[in-house]
Write a structure and sequence with these properties.
Chain lengths: 440, 260
């Protein structure tokens, strides 16, 4: 697959050129190293254990045009409100094809020394600080797509919440892909650090707005969260991009002592979606929940690879992923739980439940437990089921039509995760989003 | 007002998994009538109720059932419900994650749409529901819960009758709604049923107990035994059954050759 990484190398030369003076900075050395790593690793194939069920050949075969500078677009605030979550009045950072769109964003005062900025601005202000921050985060394991992202680091968000600061309103990050007359790619990087005893809620949403084109979009974001001792971070990820989209999303959280990270990932599908979601419970007493809902219709493929790495004692993790597969849709769930030798008294619960709505839908579910400590509690379970005939009959016997009855029961299946959303407006939004998708 | 029966069942036969359960049922329910069906366990009472509601596990192998003169057995379950058939289940299913308000509103509006009426908005729906809740002594908390999830046996039965009151069916089939109800709940449920009772609709009550029939006085009592109605009579028949048990009807059934 060498030739396909080559097109990204060519893109890199153009990218480098567009950076002007910035290419002298140490941050750029990091980009260069990452490009090399990307080229060495190459695109994975189904012979790689981690990609056994997810064939990304269609992605690897596509030539993507990098959007090097923010291009003019005709997206209006009304389109933004219609395309994504609009249920609150806090900070909203909107990005169009990988670039920050200040005119569509709401950047109010966060105050108390907290920084909420787009990454390009943060690099301009203090590239060394950004570079340091990236280097300080534990590296995600060698991965082609994370390396590719780092090679093209330019925009995304930079959020830093100082110790003791509680940001009440959620920070909404809305990434809009506009299908154009060519296949395009966006490598977004989101860096989030939440200080000791601080709290923040982040909503990371990926949408498409039809730009008249019918070409693929490739979204390749990496989000990294560092939760300091006693910090609380709620993170919601919502992906509902166009049918021709490829989305390879990486999320990595590091949890220090007694911190909490709650992550919920809603994947409503594109051609191929792969979520690499991982958390390291690095300090004693940390707590992580990792939940997800994923839908795949038609010939879509949604792959969730999660890792919960218990590296310190007395930590808890709860994981619940629920999948709805219809038509010839395909789901992959791989849930890895590592309990390291020091991580005594770990309490970890994993559950993956799947609803198959057609005979041709497929799910591959694989738990992976690697336990090196002896005093731990780890449970896991995976189920595959269909809608219950008795439940369908009950709804129909009350006058509700078959299609609506199926949609109601399918939503009910996902509801268990939706109810974990702490923001009522966001819960309503997901309810509508899921129901709209399920009625088809 | 036409004098057409609400429900006319002629020689209805049905099987489940190849085994014949209903072996020729005849039953006519006229507007304003309440029919009670009694009979020993396993005789086919619930099967009859489920067949009328359109459960696909039961295969109709013969006979017919007409609702207001139309072929009931041809209709999908939802069509039957929209045409006014309501089955209060003997064992209502739990629907975790299905919000009660959402469910009931979907049901009400499906029926209204079918009748060419305007769908109710949230406010009108709530007003309707509140009024019915008062009648049936149902708490508002019920509306916030998932349908039947974690309900006690009695609460589930009461919820069935509450749904019936909201949907106002023309043909209500109550399958052992009295089983598992305490004395007070039984009275409340009976009141609800009696309120619905009118000259335009009919009811079929499946029950094992004469007690219910003291509150809801039936016009006709039938005994279903081994897939057939082997005896029909007035409300006194329920008292006789209570006194003598089913044995004397069984003997009677064997005389007329229904036994095997
Ligand atoms: N889905 C089914 N699968 C297999 N057998 C069934 C099914 N439904 C009913 N039967 C059988 O049909 C017969 C009649 O059952 P039905 O539930 O109609 O009886 P019933 O008169 O309602 O009894 P009860 O008074 O106990 O409620 C029984 O032998 C029962 O086991
Ligand atoms: Mg029964």
């Amino acid at each position: 697959m060498h030739s396909t990484t080559e097109s990204f190398q060519k893109n890199f030369a153009l990218f480098e050129h567009s950076l002007n003076g910035e290419s002298e900075l140490p941050l750029h050395q990091l980009r260069r190293r990452s490009l090399e790593r990307f080229s060495t690793l190459g695109f994975p194939t189904t012979r790689d254990e981690d990609w056994r069920f997810t064939n990304i050949a269609p992605l690897a075969a596509t030539q993507f045009r990098p959007i090097l500078v923010s291009e003019p677009h005709s997206i209006t605030p009304a389109q933004v409100a219609a395309a994504g979550y609009a249920g609150q009045s806090g900070q909203r950072l909107v990005f169009v094809n990988g670039h920050f769109a200040p005119g569509l964003s709401q950047l109010g005062e966060v105050g108390n020394g907290a920084t909420v900025s787009n990454l390009a601005a943060a690099i301009k202000a203090d590239a060394a600080a950004v570079e340091q921050f990236i280097e300080s985060l534990p590296a995600t394991k060698p991965d082609t797509f994370a390396a590719l992202n780092t090679a093209f680091i330019r925009d995304g968000v930079f959020i830093s919440v100082p110790s003791g600061i509680i940001i009440e309103q959620p920070i909404h990050l809305l990434f809009i892909g506009v299908a154009t007359s060519e296949a395009t790619v966006a490598h977004l990087r989101n860096l989030i650090s939440v200080g000791e005893n601080a709290q923040a809620t982040i909503i990371e949403e990926y949408v498409s707005i039809g730009g008249g084109g019918n070409h693929a979009t490739f979204t390749n974001p990496v989000t990294q969260i560092a939760a300091a001792p006693n910090a609380t971070v709620n993170h919601y990820r919502i992906q509902h991009e166009q049918e021709l989209g490829f989305h390879i999303g990486t999320f990595h959280a590091t949890l220090d002592r007694a911190s909490t990270v709650n992550s919920i990932t809603f994947t409503l599908g594109s051609a191929i979606v792969r979520n690499n979601t991982s958390a390291v419970l690095a300090g004693p007493g940390a707590h992580c929940t990792m939940d997800g809902v994923y839908l795949a219709n038609e010939t879509q493929l949604v792959d969730n690879h999660t890792t919960l790495d218990h590296a310190a004692p007395n930590c808890t993790s709860h994981e619940l992923y629920k999948g709805v597969l219809n038509d010839r849709g395909r789901g992959v769930f791989s849930g890895r739980i590592i309990v390291r030798q020091d991580a005594q008294k770990t309490d970890s619960k994993q559950s993956n439940r799947n609803l198959l709505l057609s005979d041709t839908a497929i799910i591959d579910s694989k738990p992976q437990l690697e336990i090196f400590a002896d005093d731990v509690k780890c449970t896991h379970g995976a189920t595959i089921g269909q809608l219950s005939d008795e439940s369908l009959f009950y709804l129909r016997a009350r006058g509700i039509g078959l299609a609506e009855a199926r949609a109601i029961l399918t939503y009910a299946f996902a509801e268990e995760v939706v109810e974990h959303i702490a923001i009522p407006e966001l819960r309503d939004y997901l309810e509508t989003l899921l129901n709209t998708r399920l009625e088809h | 007002m036409s004098q057409q029966p609400i429900l006319e069942i002629r020689d209805l036969r049905a099987s489940v998994e190849g085994k014949e359960i209903l072996k020729g049922i005849n039953l006519t329910v006229n507007p304003g009538e309440v029919h009670a069906i009694m009979g020993p366990n396993g005789s086919g009472k619930s099967t009859l109720a489920q067949v009328l509601a359109g459960h696909k596990a039961y295969e109709v192998t013969g006979g017919e059932a007409l609702l207001h003169g139309n072929d009931l057995l041809e209709m999908d379950p939802e069509e039957r419900a929209r045409e006014g058939v309501f089955l209060a289940f003997q064992y209502p299913v739990e629907l975790p994650g299905v919000n009660s308000t959402y469910f009931l509103k979907a049901a009400v509006n499906a029926v209204r749409k079918h009748r060419g009426e305007e769908e109710l908005d949230a406010a009108d729906f709530l007003a309707l529901v509140r009024q019915k809740m008062k009648v049936l002594d149902v708490g508002e908390a019920l509306l916030k819960r998932s349908v039947n999830e974690g309900f006690s046996g009695g609460e589930k039965k009461r919820n069935e009758i509450f749904q019936m009151a909201v949907l106002e069916p023309t043909l209500a089939i109550l399958d052992e709604t009295d089983s598992g109800l305490d004395i007070d709940a039984l009275r409340v449920v009976a009141d609800g049923v009696n309120k619905l009772r009118g000259s335009e609709n009919g009811m079929v009550l499946v029950t094992h107990y004469q007690r219910l029939l003291e509150y809801i006085v039936p016009d006709v009592v039938h005994v279903l035994y081994n897939g057939r109605i082997i005896k029909s009579g007035g409300k006194e028949l329920a008292l006789e059954l209570e006194e003598h048990g089913y044995d004397w009807v069984k003997e009677h059934a064997e005389e007329v050759g229904v036994g095997q």
